[in-house]
Amino acid sequence: EVQLVESGGGSVQAGGSLRLSCTASGFTFDDSDMGWYRQAPGNECDLVSVISSDGSTYYSDSVKGRFTISQDNAKNTAYLQMNSLKTEDTAVYYCVICGYWGQGTQVTVSP
């Protein structure tokens, strides 16, 4: 059974940092692209960042320069380092690999 488990969410003040983790079980993702999405209340789910199997990365304009995506294949874990957080970053964050979605982790940024 394939499972993705996110962790690392929480509440932080604007300007703070959080690091999200996504650990996969049931398969290895070193040959797959991996993405982080987020959904704020009342909004659609938006793509935040992607890391490809070749290590190339993509960031949405809203997080470029503040977020960093990475992965540790030995741990089957991907990360999203989020710095200089803004209130508009408040959302549930999901990791997605090969069409599988994690359960999401809440990030709340207060003024």
Descriptive report:
0% of the residues lie in helices and 54% in strands. It has strands spanning 3-7, 10-13, 18-25, 34-39, 45-51, 57-59, 67-72, 77-82, 91-97, 100-101, 105-110. Strands 2, 4, 5, 6, 9, 10 and 11 form a seven-stranded mixed β-sheet that branches. The chain has a four-stranded antiparallel β-sheet with strand order 1-3-8-7, with no helix packed on it. Strand 7 and strand 8 form a beta hairpin. The chain is globular.
The tally of helices reads: 0
Low-confidence stretches: none
Mean pLDDT: 93
Helical residue percent band: under 10%
Beta strand count: 11
Main beta sheet: 7 strands, mixed
Q: Give the CA-based shape.
A: globular
Structural class: mainly beta
Radius of gyration: 13 Å
Percentage of residues in DSSP E strands? over 45%
Measured between the Cα atoms of the first and last residue, the distance is 40 Å
Element-by-element helix/strand order: EEEEEEEEEEE
Structure characteristics:
mainly beta, 111 residues, globular, four-stranded antiparallel beta sheet, seven-stranded mixed beta sheet, single chain
Topology:
Blueprint: E1 3-7, E2 10-13, E3 18-25, E4 34-39, E5 45-51, E6 57-59, E7 67-72, E8 77-82, E9 91-97, E10 100-101, E11 105-110
Parallel strand pairs: 2-11
Antiparallel strand pairs: 1-3, 3-8, 4-5, 4-9, 5-6, 7-8, 9-10, 9-11
